[in-house]
Amino acid sequence: MQLLLMCLQFFKTGLFAIGGGLATIPFLYEISDYYGWFTHHDILNFIAVSEATPGPVGVNMATYAGYLSNGWYGAILSTFSLVLPSVIIILIVAKLLDKFQTNRFVINGFRWLRPASTALIASAGLNVVLVVFFDAEKITFDMFGRLGQIITHINWVALLLFACLFVVMKTFKGHPLIYIVISAVLGIILKL
Amino acid sequence: MKTENVKEKILKYLTIYWTMFKIGITTFGGGYAMVAIIDRELGDRKKWIEKEELLNYIAISQITPGVIAVNVSTFVGRKKGGVPGAICATLGVITPSIIIIMLIAALLTNFAGNEYVKHAFAGIRVCVCVLIINATIGFIKKTVIDLLTIAIFVGVFVVAAFTRIETVYIVLAVIVLSVIYTLIKGNKKPPESLTEQAEKSSRKGGTS
Description:
Chain A is mostly helical. Chain A has helices at about 1-15, 25-35, 40-50, 55-100, 105-135, 145-150, 155-170, 175-190.
C-alpha cells in the first residue's frame, strides 16, 4: 500500500514539475513533510549526489528518494513513476505535431522556438563557463569593471584543459563518453 | 521472412536502448549537457536527427511536464523507432541512473563530499563546457539566419542570462509572440513546412 502511495507521489511529481530536474525539488520537500520517508537533510544529499553522478539530475534524485523510501524496488518504481507521465505526454504531443505539421501556426511557432532554444542553451553554457573558469562564488558583478580583479580569479588550469579539449574534440569525432572519462581522470591528476 | 523482420526490429530497439544508455552515462548535470551530447552523438555522428528537429524537441520539452532530458529522449526514440522506440530510449537513458544511484545510496554515505569525486567532477565540468559551446555554435549556424531569428536569439538570451524569469514563461512568451506574428503575416506562405524538414532530414540521414 505504501509502495503504491509512493508511486503515486512520484507520478504526480513527474506530471507537475515543469522545467527540468531542479523543478522536482519542491515536490521532494512536500513528500518529505507529508510522509517523512526521507528528511530535509536527505534532500540536500540527493541534490549533491545527483549533480556529481551520471544521468539527468531529476531522475537521479527520484531514484535516490525511492531507495530511501522502499529499498531497491522503491528506487526502480519511483524512477518509472517519475518518467511515465513524460513519456505519455510527449507521445501525445508528438502525434499531434505529426497531424498539424502543415499548420502555419505550428510552422511559424517552431521557426521562433528554434533560435529561442539555441539562446537558452547558450545561456546555460554561459553559466557553466562562469563556474568553470572563474570561481563563480567569489566573483561578483561589480568586479567586471576592474579587469585586474577578474584575472586573479581565473582558473588557468581549467582554461588550458578547455583549450586542449576543444581542439581535440574538433579533430577527433569520438564518443563523448571517452572525453568525459579523460576529463575526470585529468581533473583528479591536476587537482582541479 | 517474418522471423527475420522480428529479429531486425528487436535489434533496432536494442540499438536505441544501448545508444541512449551510453548517453545517460555521459550526461552530467542538467538537461542541456545531455542536449549537447545528443547533438554530437545522434546529430553529427549517427545522423539520427537534424539539429532543427532537436531544437524543436528541446523547446517543447521546456513547456511539457517532466525532466527535460527524459522528454527529449522520448522524442528522439519515437523519431527512430515509433512508440516502442520511445519507450526503449527512455528506459535506456534512466537505467544508468538507477544502477549508479542505488550503488551509491547503498555503499557510499559521503560520495559527494569525497575529495577525488570533487576533482573528477571539476574536470568533467570543463568537458561539459566544451560540449555545450560546440553544440551552441552548431545550433547558431543552423537557426540564427536572418534578422528575425537574430532578434529572437538576442532577446531570449538576454532574458534567460540576466533575469530570473523561469524558462517555462520565456518559452510560452515566444509562442505567444509567434502566434501574433503569424496572425499579422497571415496570408504569406511559410518558408518551409515540417514535412519538408522531415523529408530533408531522412534523405540526409539515410536509412541507418
